[in-house]
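Standup notes
- DV: blocked on the single-chain target, sequence here:
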Amino acid sequence: MPECDFVLPHSRGSSHGHTRIIRKAYEQDYYTRMMSECYQLWAQLEKEANVQIYRNTGMLIVGKEDCSAFRSLRGTLLRNNVPMEVLSPEQFASRFPSVRLPPGESAVIDKTAGVLHADRALKAVQDLFRGLGGVIHDGEKVVDFTPGSPITMTTNSGMYRAQSLVITAGPWAKSVLARTGLQLPLQVLRINVCYWKERIPGTYGIGRHFPCFIGVKQHGAKHEIYGLPSNEYPGLMKICYHSGSETEPDERDRQTSQEDIAILSSFVSKSFPGLDPTPAVVEQCMYTVTPDSDFILDQHPSHSNIIIGAGFSGWCDC
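- DV (later): unblocked, structure below
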């Protein structure tokens, strides 16, 4: 149950766009273990929808040895026997001459990681759902709902009743759940999604087998910086900061902070000499995050027939 009244597909939430990273490298072992089933489910969707959704590229992870987050990412790969590779500085320079490895930093590769085509995935899920008899009521805004048995939900187009309800309202989850008396500490962030021009087209291209990457708190950044090989827009590489400015979902366009872009420009100039350090394209999306960055998937504490899914930003590949 989303609260927004946008017609699908739309770019006002967190799930739009062409690509996302999928990986097994997480700081917590339970996420790494969960990903084995996730890969199987994506493969099943590809088979049923007859469309390619996943493309293996590998993922480069770079960070300082004294950084606990970097050590955790590497450790989960080792403990869970995930195919990986540890690169010496010499191997890194030979393999990735277009990327600068800062002195004192280390690099590993998650060989299972790659790119998910998010727009294809959403369309495939929606098409299969309709094919199984499901009905999607997009363009309808939820104006009220009453828990119970059945649950009654009212939109700007009508009234619906059901024995159970799944609430996955994205950035609007906090306000929707407040109507049930549940106050969750969800924070909405406005994210600048930046694309950087290759000085020589194809340098960081998916066609040349350049991997996805995560820079773990590099160059003094407080959060991770991640990137995907150039693919969505010819000659442009997607590099983003894994945080943003706090906002309200209906006020997103009023938030104009570019602090994250300044962090990214500095990072690009230091680490990716083959890119112009001024973004060529800047788009926006929203993150919905919890205090510990773990997503919520649970029953409502007072209404067992209501299932809640929230705080998935950064976890869309699961």
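- Follow-up: Residues 186 and 273 are 37 Å apart (CA to CA).
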